[in-house]
Write a structure and sequence with these properties.
Helix content: 25-40%
Protein name: Heparinase II/III family protein
Main location: periplasm
Oligomer: single chain
Shape: elongated
Pfam family, one: Hepar_II_III_N
Number of strands: 25
InterPro entries: Chondroitin_lyas (IPR008929), Hepar_II_III_C (IPR012480), Hepar_II_III_N (IPR031680)
Largest sheet: 9 strands, antiparallel
Distance between the termini: 69 Å
Strand content: 15-25%
Subcellular location: Periplasm
């Protein structure tokens, strides 16, 4: 490490900074934008303090040690080496004209370049593919006000790495960031080869990452917000560079907003499927016209109304095997009714390689059926084999061989009189067991005779299980322990009431929100449920 706190006058004399003394600083598109982090602030960076990921601030001082990673957190290390926090100083310089901000930004960037040569960087995060992509725009921003050989050489080196397809993330949000970065350098240095390569590659990646229905293929809906935002940046940058926006990019970007809203519950938060917590709240997107939507990428979404927070909402997972940000959640579902979450997913904790992180990705962290005595086969695809629905009731059948034998789940959602019914079974004479994770606020009231009642104040919800029209008892209820957990936000781990069924040849689970006395009966292959609002009848076979 070396100290770079050179006086501003000396930097000007050496030609490191453009001499803007006495002149109004021009605000540039490269330095003003939503790529700038909310934290740390420019004042904090000037004090030698940085804070990322809602973790406590870290003192990095004037002479930055680029090996710093006090939390041993991969995401923290990535953000640290992205240098976007350095770019915030340049934006502040443009806003207020105080040259000390530009001088400090130059010190930080030049120190990073010196201490992190590609062959022997101070940290493994320095030249990882995503920090490179996020750092390049910050360096482009700096170059708008600093004319120095070391900076131009570093931009060229970044472009060579970004342009290497062997290091490129196809069909992924990282790839989009890589192309934004390569385009930015190509436009700044007027290199059309880099521009052309970025545009060609970005067009292909967008078609891989967003399907023709507008669904994000990364298997975590919350990333659709990030991709939507980043593609907006990409299209703006293309226009600013005098290049045409390819039609495939603008068309898929436009459709992505529908997927975002279908993935959002009536309270305004995205359903925590895959690597996504329950605290993501999209805004500014129009509501689609459909209330029920099946995305062939592997999502079923349904709701009773777009405008009422008390309306019902559910999600069901199927589709291709796990990749990118996906979890082993096929056949899993969530349920929102009467203005609140009822059944929830375990959610997303972090990207840290901990036992708990890997548990949140496993089948038992989701509301799924498991096959007793059979081994789970990761990355198995699941098929949506049958659908039947109208505005008052929807039915679905899903099947796969994730346990080597046929595993089938049929789902019925009835509206107005809120009821969810789920029938699980397996082939080969195997028995099934299922897991039901409730919103953390719901706590156990009673568990007997195949009926489990939970409550949160006045709100109550009942779970009743049958097999062949006969009640099934022996449910186990955990809160904490091995299964009873949820992660509603980054690094959070909260206890939640989880019901585990006994093993049975078939399991019909009936969820009735709003009552502790649902009066479920079954005769002649027909189930009748008395809810707080009236009676609901349906076939025990669902279809």
């Amino acid at each position: 490490m070396r100290r770079l706190a050179l006086p501003l006058a000396l930097l000007l004399a050496l030609g490191g900074l453009a001499d803007t003394a006495g002149a109004t600083v021009k605000r540039t598109a490269e330095c003003q934008g939503d790529w700038l982090p909310a934290t740390p602030t420019a004042a904090e960076v000037m004090k030698g303090e940085v804070a990322f990921l809602d973790l406590p601030p870290v003192k990095v001082g004037q002479d930055v040690d680029w090996r710093t990673n006090p939390y041993k957190n991969r995401s923290w290390g990535m953000v640290f080496h992205s240098l976007r926090w350095m770019g915030r100083l340049v934006a502040e310089y443009e806003n207020n004209g105080e040259e000390r901000y530009l001088a400090r930004a130059t010190e930080i960037a030049q120190d990073w370049v010196k201490d992190n040569p590609r062959g022997r960087p101070a940290s493994p995060y320095a030249w990882a593919e995503h920090p490179i992509a996020l750092r390049a725009p910050a360096l482009v921003c700096l170059s708008r006000h600093v004319d120095a050989k070391w900076l131009k050489d570093s931009l060229s080196e970044h472009a060579r790495v970004l342009g290497d397809d062997r290091l490129y993330e196809w069909g992924h949000n990282h790839g989009i960031d890589q192309d934004i970065a390569l385009l930015g350098i190509g436009c700044r240095l007027n290199d059309r080869r880099w521009q052309d390569h970025a545009i060609k590659r970005l067009t292909k990646t967008v078609k891989l990452d967003i399907d023709s229905q507008g669904a994000l293929m990364e298997q975590a809906p919350r990333y659709a917000i990030y991709v939507h935002d980043r593609l907006k940046v990409a299209m703006t940058n293309l226009k600013d560079c005098g290049r045409k926006v390819p039609g495939d990019i603008s068309a898929r970007w436009s459709k992505l907003s529908g997927f975002i809203m279908h993935s959002t519950n009536p309270a305004g938060f995205m359903v925590p499927i895959g690597d996504g917590g329950a605290d993501h709240e999209p805004s500014g997107f129009p509501n689609p016209s459909e209330r029920v939507k099946v995305f062939k990428a592997g999502y079923v979404y349904g709701r009773t109304d777009w405008a009422k927070p008390e309306s019902a909402f559910y999600s069901i997972r199927f589709g291709p095997g796990t990749k990118y940000h996906g979890h082993e959640d096929h056949l899993g579902l969530t349920y929102y009714a009467q203005g609140r979450d009822v059944l929830v997913d375990a959610g997303f904790h972090s990207y840290e390689p901990t036992r708990y992180r890997y548990w949140t990705m496993s089948p038992e962290a989701h509301n799924v059926p498991t096959v007793v005595g059979a081994r789970f086969r990761p990355r198995t695809a699941t098929r949506l084999s049958r659908t039947a629905y109208d505005s008052g009731r929807q039915r679905y059948r899903l099947t796969d061989k994730a346990y080597g034998v046929s595993r089938t789940r049929s789902v019925l959602v009835n509206h107005d009189e809120d009821v969810m019914a789920v029938l699980d079974g397996a082939g080969g004479g195997k028995k099934v067991r299922n897991i039901w994770r409730f919103d953390p606020s719901l706590k156990l009231v009673s568990n007997s005779g195949g009926k489990v009642v939970l409550a949160d104040g006045k709100f109550k919800v009942s779970l009743v299980q049958l097999s062949g029209c006969k009640p099934v008892s022996g449910q186990k209820v955990e809160r904490g322990g091995r299964l009873g957990w949820v992660s509603p936000s980054y690094m959070a781990k909260n206890p939640a009431t989880t019901v585990v069924s006994p093993a049975s040849a078939s399991l019909l689970t009936v969820i009735v929100p709003g009552t502790d006395q649902p009066k479920v009966s079954c005769a002649g292959g027909k189930v009748t449920v008395q809810t707080a609002d009236g009676a609901v009848g349906f076939k025990a076979s669902i279809f």
